[in-house]
Amino acid sequence: NAGVTQTPKFRVLKTGQSMTLLCAQDMNHEYMYWYRQDPGMGLRLIHYSVGEGTTAKGEVPDGYNVSRLKKQNFLLGLESAAPSQTSVYFCASSLSGDSYNEQFFGPGTRLTVL
Amino acid sequence: GQNIDQPTEMTATEGAIVQINCTYQTSGFNGLFWYQQHAGEAPTFLSYNVLDGLEEKGRFSSFLSRSKGYSYLLLKELQMKDSASYLCAVTDSNYQLIWGAGTKLIIKP
Questions:
Q1: Contact across the interface for B31 and A99, Cβ inside 8 Å
Q2: Could you read off the pLDDT of A69-112 as tens digits, one per residue?
Q3: Which of A76, A110, B15, B80 suits A6 as a labelling partner, its CA being 20 to 30 A distant?
């Protein structure tokens, strides 16, 4: 099993450009999450999904959109990139969303917006 | 607001013992996780506590006191490969994970 995979691993964008980050999991997990991680700060939740066809906003959703058309995939879109979106983006998945919701993480995407 | 506090950085010697503390103030509590994150890599699960007390798993142990809003991760017989950041995270009343900023642990020979 590959677990959680993310593409691309690295990307450099210019301000105003758009892009989509792809996350895939092969563990049949219901819940999927997109986080950003910045130096000196904890992981911050951008958007999450509790099942195929559902999405919900997290702590820092502005400037991002998501879609979960298939259970195994969770896409994160940046419509008009800004330098403040320079960060490391992690996708994660969990079997459920109850108290023991151990999350499995992908390897991350390092995004730089110039 | 919700808050999780951990020391920013700690240094310890190979073969020694180190304790990493985590205090939290969250809207509700449904469990506490510790994750390990090596530089440039993804976080990986270490431990989970939902009841008060100590959970032991090999060289790593995690303790929880819900009344004090406090947890610690204890690492014994430190090895160089234990150099990493250790993230404390709490599941709140909405079953959302609230993450601390992490503690960078530096192991010296």
A1: yes
A2: 999 999 999 999 999 999 999 999 999 877 778 999 999 999 99
A3: B80
